[in-house]
Write a structure and sequence with these properties.
By secondary structure, the chain is of the alpha/beta class. It is built from 28 helices and 20 strands. It binds methionine (MET) and zinc ion (ZN).
């Protein structure tokens, strides 16, 4: 290792990879479709990488001092680590070359599967909306040191004119194994982390090859230490210390920066302990998330000695302009207490935010000055470093600008709206409570007269090229609003007729007017703004464009009612009104950072409550409020779960509890891992809940029965995540599985989720089979009796 290991005064942990115009997304998809070959894809990726480096230099990072991270995954950074380690599950063993390395085609096979081989599973990356590919580790998994892509990147940049020195980024060994799941067939209770020693050997090899390629620093990301296991692992004498002693003790290596992020690493009651442990182990620089995590204690700072502290004071997760004054105070404090050497940095990679506020042309006038996307955040880190070095006068103008923007934001009309505040303040317990569930079920059945095992869908119908085309056409002005509305009415009428023809019991309008289930609400609520170019990577080549919740939220006028009542006017059967729930709206937007999330959630809830009241007034008898993100926002530490579940469940209840007993409230959740949240789901007090269940072959019904869940439940019997058509027999068998655990009166028959990503061809056949299966089961004598009883109650 070089004895000179100075670290830059400013850095970022990572930068959006997809490209300002989603160049990488397009290139990767074109490669999959056979439009370009591997060399073509590599050319686009290299060009983008060069432009990123140039842009970061323009923003103030140096090309020569390791301040620019090399985190250019083609699909996912965890998949990159899997490929670098050659740690493939047995079903993909043939994808590795003799030296354990994985080529480009094989890399994508891991991500997408082939033939009968299922791809690696996708899961949320910590509490973000980014999804990574889960490593599968078993007792026999082999680990090799094949970080060829990363070393090639480092080498290629070093060989450029004037030589760019990047800082390669890799998921650290402990986090890698914490994020893994046990490979199928592993012994009961097998913990992937038990393979740490073999993994470390491979990391030692990777460090050596990166040093040889010319890397002076390497960044190992260990955000896994913020979870429940972090406290024990990062305690003095624990696994973190042992592993990093080994890595730091190797001769051939670049200097090491270990990052955490997404909260306080290690024991939350001893902030900074994990950093001190890493320093003791011999790591040259440690990073702490000072936005979501706690400030390290003085004791921990003292223990850092000469180890540099990379201080994450610029929020990598949100889009608000930094309070430079406050950040500088934090940095000065850290530096002042113990003489710790401090770098100004982001709290996480900037992967979670869009590229550049400057690319937006249609934001409300007041908003751009309050915002900071990736490029602005790079500048913030650079400015803070300058201020820390040169004192406040050296950045006086920037401090003043940031301060002025913050003050303007705080008093802006719309950020605080008295009318909205008064409503949330004056809420009594009554606003959160409906009548008794049994009584509701009774009056709803009287009103709806549904058969036993009622069939329905989750809301959206296939969004065909025609639907997307019409939306694009009205946006670019080639058709008028009136023509577009007419098109939507035709589409809705077609979907309603189709469902009647199929014989579904509760119909939907199909959601053709919605570009996205959250953005559509953001566009119709006050307090939100949508971006044009604000794409962030969700997984692989998929990006989302979260809206920005900047002010107090309210609903100026009913907006779903016209579509829902039009659809209802076309049929005698009950039609469900479709809304997105408060927690999901928050989870999939950038939310304001100046008040507790629970307060914001209640404002959104009241806006939805107004919409439900208008739907009821229009004669709608069933309203579904989707909360697919309820479980997603669950805090990383179990100690924090209860507080979160309390405010999120209350927000849902506030949205729905204004509904009359005769109005049936449905909710939909897209997952079946109910375990830890089952009582929260019970707490939502929805009359009917649909969930994903087909893939796990309805395992969840046992849990529900064990819990004593007593309201309506629709475990999905049709997996909509693939074009595969489930047969009538197969669905019949699933319904019988459900019936073995739960009473027929409680069960609904529906798919796992909305149909918007499916094609009509498979959808129609699948739904026909679903209706036929429900009928077949209904005709079983015992159930026939129940139905008879229901009809006469
Ligand atoms: C991700 S959950 C989706 C629910 C929505 N109602 C739909 O059907 O598309
Ligand atoms: Zn869903």
């Amino acid at each position: 290792m070089s004895t000179e290991c100075t670290f830059p005064a400013a850095t970022i942990l990572g930068y959006p990879r997809i490209g300002p115009n989603r160049e990488l997304k397009r290139a990767v998809e074109s490669y999959w479709a056979g439009g370009i070959d591997e060399a073509g894809l590599q050319r686009v990726a290299d060009e983008l990488q060069d432009r990123t480096v140039a842009r970061l230099v323009e923003l103030g990072l140096s090309a020569a001092d390791s301040s620019i991270p090399a985190d250019f995954a083609l699909y996912d950074q965890v998949l990159d680590a899997t490929a670098a380690l050659g740690a493939l599950p047995a079903r993909f063993a043939d994808l590795a070359g003799d030296d354990g390395s994985v080529g480009t085609a094989e890399y994508f096979t891991l991500a997408r599967g082939d033939g009968d081989r299922a791809p690696l599973e996708l899961t949320k990356w910590f509490d973000s909306n980014y999804h990574y590919l889960v490593p599968e580790i078993g007792t026999a998994t082999t680990f090799s040191a094949g970080a060829h892509r990363l070393t090639a990147t480092v080498r290629r940049q070093r060989q450029r004119e004037r030589g760019v020195v990047l800082r390669p980024v890799l998921v650290g060994p402990i986090t890698y194994l914490l994020l893994a799941k046990a490979e199928e067939g592993s012994p009961e209770g097998f913990d992937p982390l038990s393979r740490i020693d073999d993994a470390v050997v491979a990391y030692v090899g990777i460090l050596a090859s990166l040093a040889e390629a010319g890397a002076e620093w390497v960044q190992l990301d260990e955000p896994g230490l913020v979870g429940d296991r972090g406290g024990e692992l990062a305690a003095p004498g624990g696994l973190v210390e042992r592993v990093y002693r080994q890595l730091a003790g190797t001769a051939e290596r670049p200097a090491l920066l270990v990052t955490t992020g997404y909260g306080t690493a290690g024991n939350p009651a001893k902030p900074g302990e994990a950093l001190a442990v890493l320093a003791t182990a011999g790591v040259e620089a440690v990073h702490a998330d000072l936005v979501k995590g706690a400030k390290p204690s003085t004791e921990a700072l003292q223990a850092l000695g000469t180890t540099r502290l990379v201080a994450g004071v610029v929020d990598g997760r949100n889009v608000w302009r930094n309070n430079l004054q406050a950040s500088l105070e934090v940095l000065e404090h850290l530096q002042g207490v113990t003489g710790t050497v401090v770098t100004a940095a982001t709290s996480t990679s900037l992967l979670h935010v869009p590229h550049d506020v400057q690319a937006e042309t249609a934001l409300p006038e007041h908003l751009p000055a309050w915002l900071s996307f990736a490029d602005q955040k790079v500048r913030e880190a650079v400015v803070l470093a300058r201020g820390l070095d040169g004192g406040r006068p050296s950045i006086a103008a920037q401090l003043q600008d940031a301060d002025a923007a913050l003050r303007q934001r705080a008093r802006f009309d719309g950020v605080v709206v008295d009318r909205v505040r008064n409503r949330t303040r004056d809420l009594t317990e009554e606003a959160f409570t409906r009548g008794p569930a049994e009584r509701r079920a009774e009056v709803q059945q009287q009103r709806l007269g549904l058969p036993v095992l009622p069939t329905t869908t989750i809301g959206s119908f296939p969004q065909t090229g025609e639907v997307r085309g019409a939306r694009a056409a009205v946006r670019n002005g080639s058709i008028s609003q009136a023509e577009y509305d007419q098109f939507l009415r035709q589409e809705i009428a077609r979907v309603v007729r189709l469902q009647e023809g199929l014989g579904l019991d509760v119909l939907v309008h199909g959601e053709p007017e919605r570009n996205d289930m959250v953005q559509y609400f953001a566009e119709n609520f006050d307090g939100f703004a949508a971006t044009e170019q604000g794409w962030v990577q969700s997984y692989g080549s998929r990006c989302t464009r979260p809206s920005i919740l900047w002010g107090d939220v309210s609903r100026p006028q009913a907006f779903t009612v016209p579509w829902i009542s039009f659809a209802q006017s076309l049929t005698e059967r009950p039609l469900k009104g479709m809304l997105t729930g408060p927690v999901t709206i928050l989870a999939w937007s950038f939310v304001r950072d100046d008040q507790p999330l629970g307060n914001t959630a209640n404002q959104v809830a009241l806006a939805l409550r107004d919409e439900i009241a208008d739907l009821e007034a229009a004669g709608v008898a069933i309203v579904q409020v989707d909360e697919p993100a309820l479980r997603e926002l669950l805090p990383l530490r179990s100690a924090d779960h209860q507080a979160y579940l309390t405010w999120s469940v209350r927000a849902f209840r506030l949205a729905t509890a204004g509904a009359a007993d005769q109005t049936q409230i449905h909710t939909h959740l897209c997952y079946s891992e109910f375990g830890e949240v089952i009582s929260a789901i019970d707490g939502l007090d929805a009359d009917v809940t649909s969930i994903e269940a087909a893939r796990s072959r309805l395992e969840v019904v046992e849990d529900l029965a064990g819990f004593g869940y007593s309201r309506g439940i629709g475990p999905g019997v049709y997996d909509i995540h693939s074009p595969r058509v489930p047969s009538e027999q197969e669905i019949t068998a699933l319904i019988r599985t459900a019936l073995a655990a739960l009473p027929a009166q409680q069960l609904w028959i529906n798919p796992d989720c909305g149909l918007k990503t499916r094609g009509y061809e498979e959808t129609v056949v699948s739904l026909r089979n679903l209706v036929a299966a429900a009928r077949t089961v209904r005709e079983g004598t015992d159930i026939g009796e129940i139905e008879h009883a229901l009809a006469h109650s």
